[in-house]
Amino acid sequence: VSAGLPETRTDTAMSELVPEPRPKPAVPMKPMSINSNLLGYIGIDTIIEQMRKKTMKTGFDFNIMVVGQSGLGKSTLVNTLFKSQVSRKASSWNREEKIPKTVEIKAIGHVIEEGGVKMKLTVIDTPGFGDQINNENCWEPIEKYINEQYEKFLKEEVNIARKKRIPDTRVHCCLYFISPTGHSLRPLDLEFMKHLSKVVNIIPVIAKADTMTLEEKSEFKQRVRKELEVNGIEFYPQKEFDEDLEDKTENDKIRQESMPFAVVGSDKEYQVNGKRVLGRKTPWGIIEGNSLHLLEELVADQTHLQDLKEVTHNIHYETYRAKRLNDNGGLPPGEGLLGTVLPPVPATPCPTAE
Amino acid sequence: ASSSEVAGFTGKRENIRSLTMSGHVGFESLPDQLVNRSIQQGFCFNILCVGETGIGKSTLIDTLFNTNFEDHESSHFCPNVKLKAQTYELQESNVRLKLTIVNTVGFGDQINKEESYQPIVDYIDAQFEAYLQEELKIKRSLFTYHDSRIHVCLYFISPTGHSLKTLDLLTMKNLDSKVNIIPVIAKADTVSKTELQKFKIKLMSELVSNGVQIYQFPTDDDTIAKINAAMNGQLPFAVVGSMDEVKVGNKMVKARQYPWGVVQVENENHCDFVKLREMLICTNMEDLREQTHTRHYELYRRCKLEEMGFTDVGPENKPVSLQETYEAKRHEFHGERQRKEEEMKQMFVQRVKEKEAVLKEAERELQAKFEHLKRLHQEERLKLEEKRRLLEEEIIAFSKKKATSEIFHNQPFLATGSNLRKDKDRKNSNFL
Which of A88, A224, B361, B418 is the most buried (most CB within 10 A)? Predict the structure, then answer.
């Protein structure tokens, strides 16, 4: 029993509590690479097919949110993107229905199927956004909703007995509708995007683009891009998540040339030059939804659908989770949620490679 | 299945309608996008081979993947069972596979095999633990995590022809809730065809009667249900492994050459190797991975967390959030720790007091002894002083006597000598 025992004991006890670095998996850190000249076909590549079948069976969730003042054509655009009556249009509202006093969040789910792939599409509408006289903090209910979905997911993930597949209600993509003033972004636009670009993938869209000529359109786009950059607003696809050079060049093109997408939404078909297109009929001609196909590509089509979900899951959700656990746990970052409660790693080391 | 899933999603939301689309949207490529992602990242597949030394584990793996993974023959003299893991990167067309092979070393060699299965269980648990730790981190990176969890365990049964060994039963019973087990009969070319049938039946019935849950090839997907069901009836697969090539007809095939004939590895009449390869790699690799994650890992996780005292539902059946439980536990733990600290402090103080008392007592005793000795010493000294005094007195007396006797002696020598003599004698006799 030496002098000053309690103090030193505490220290060693504390060091026992700090979890040892997680047991290394018993594989050498640098996998040895065997020459890829396999002496014959084995069938490893069939795993692709196996995986595809599995994912098709489970189906996909996709949650898209539309934000913008009423009358900008949000519902029409969503219908155009997914080629079905996904949203009920505001014009079909009951005349007596007033514009809501605060921003409402309305989520409506649909199941659509294509080529054997089932997708549960949820469109989250935000009537009332930007429609009041005083629109201060009108993005707050939206931010709250988005965080609530992250919270729901986190709660499920943290359960002891977890569901086989946690329902994903997180917002994967938020289409923000910019009024085609031709001048610049409005303060409300900037405020909204500043706050929300940190928690969700934002795709800015210039609505009702048929009110601008080609030159006006490209000028407006440039100006909007500049303003977003100056205000530090990162929209999807975010520069910081470009994985490699290929991604970067591809995304740079989208970011610097096409975005924000100027769209014209329509759910009516017309004949133009022998083709059937979706367009708007006016006395001066039939307007086709131009940048629409690019937006389609981004949102509904081949290239980025899965990526939107991944960025939401791997980045936005993880950020939320880390913040949440940090705030309430008061633990230093990097330590596990159960850091101080886990028993010290048992004395026998995990069997390692010889 | 899909409609019930949809119903499950409803929750508080409005009813979900099915819509038909008026044109091609393009999301049917979603599975491809997902798969492309995985191709980019590469796949992980981890196989654990459990079997006695020399039963043919390494050879079979080499044959399965048609490669010569470097490996030395293991010794039979290991004191404990150990596990050896190696990772390899294989590529076929555009698919990159990170294959990890884990072999047991020394399994079945010990005299006392009671603890043989434990290192295997520990290894599997350790991989689950590593994943769990990563999942629980605040800043985590699951999508770049190298998944080391064991996806399948090939259990090698000795081709005795009789039945399972007790070690086999014991080991498999301890593994079946942690990993997908596919039992195989090793070195099946030592068992004749008729014996093999009986052997397989005996093995399966033993497994069933002992409640061992081996991996069942899934039969819910119509395209593969039939073949999977058929294969389920062929378990355990009787396999032969060989990387040596023998000329049969006009082709070189993998085989084992005996004086009495050639056993061809890929001949389905000779052994079930092809079936194993089909089932393991071409048909069910993805399902094995999924089962590991959704069943075995989840079970481990649930048990581990419950062990630590976390529950989903607290008293009165109110849902308990992990956060609350964690806080409560932390509080409890701190309280416990403080109590222990106090206890230790008290004990320390107590000990010190006791020691002090003991020392004081000893001191006192010592002092007493010292006093006692001093006293004794003092007494001795007095006694000695007394003796000396007496002695000195006697010396003086004697000197006096001597002096007087000399004077007497020196006086006229006339006195009767006899009287003197008598006196002298008398005086002298005093001294005698």
Answer: A224
Q: Residues 6 or more apart from B273 whose CB is under 8 A from it? A: B63, B237, B239, B240, B241, B265, B266
The pTM of this model reads: 0.70
Domain definitions of chain B by residue range? 41-308, 319-402
pLDDT of residue A84 exceeding 60: yes
Residue A176 CA to residue A324 CA, distance in Å, equals: 27
Best B10, B27, B304 residue to mutate vs chain A (most A CBs within 10 Å)? B27
Structure tokens at B28: 């049917």
A91 to each of A88, A96, A102, B31, B307, how far by Cα in Å? Answer: 8, 12, 19, 36, 58
| Among B240, B67, B266, B87, residue whose Cα is nearest residue A40 | B67
Burial A70-79 (b: 16+ CB within 10 A, else e): bebbbbbbbb
Neighbours of A346 (CB within 10 A): 11
| CATH class of the domain defined by B41-308 | alpha beta
Residues in chain B within 8 Å Cβ distance of A116: 28
Peptide bond into A344 cis (omega under 30): no
Note the pLDDT tens digit of each residue in A129-172: 888 777 788 888 899 999 999 998 988 888 888 888 888 899 99
Burial of B355 (0-12, 13-18, 19+ CB in 10 A): exposed
Q: Look at residue B429 in the predicted model and tell me its pLDDT.
A: 58
| The pLDDT of residue A135 | 78
What is the C-alpha separation between A249 and A243, in angstroms, rounded?
Answer: 11
For B184, other C-beta atoms within 10 Å of its C-beta total 25
Residues of B within 8 A of A352 (CB-CB) are 85
Q: Do B85 and A27 touch (CB under 8 A)?
A: yes
Dump strand ranges (E) for chain A: 32-33, 60-67, 106-114, 117-125, 173-178, 202-206, 261-262, 269-272, 275-282, 285-288
Q: Which of A37, A35, A40 is nearest to B251 (CA)?
A: A40
Q: Distance between CA B132 and CA B140 in Å, rounded?
A: 11
Beta strands of B323-391 (E only): which ranges? none
Structure tokens at B375: 């006293």
Q: What is the DSSP letter of A336?
A: B
Q: What is the pLDDT of residue B136?
A: 84
Whether B28 sits inside 8 A of A115 (CB atoms) is yes
In 3-state terms, what secondary structure has residue A176?
strand
Class (C level, CATH) for A55-328: alpha beta
Interface of A with B in 136-175 (CB under 8 A): 155, 158-162, 164-165, 167
Pairing of strands B251-258, B245-248: antiparallel
The helix-helix angle for B118-136 and B298-307 (nearest 10°) equals 80
CB pairs under 8 A between A and B: 306
How many CB atoms are located within 10 Å of the residue A92 CB?
8
- CA angle, B87 then B91 then B96, to 5°: 75
CA dist A275 and B365 (Å) reads 119
Helix (H) or strand (E) holding A80: helix A74-82
Instruction: Check CB contact under 8 Å for B14 and A107.
Output: yes
Characterize B260-292 residue by residue with b for buried, 16 or more Cβ atoms within 10 angstroms of its Cβ, and e for exposed: eeebbbbbeebbbbebbbbbbbbbbbbbbbbbb
Helix axes A318-329, A140-158, angle to 10 degrees: 80
Closest CA to A157 of A171, A140, A170, A174: A170
The answer to whether A246 and B36 are in contact (CB under 8 A) is no
* Closest CA of chain A from B29, distance in Å: 6
Distance (Å, whole) CA A79 – CA A63:
14
Cis omega (within 30 of 0) on the bond before A346? no
ipTM of the complex: 0.70
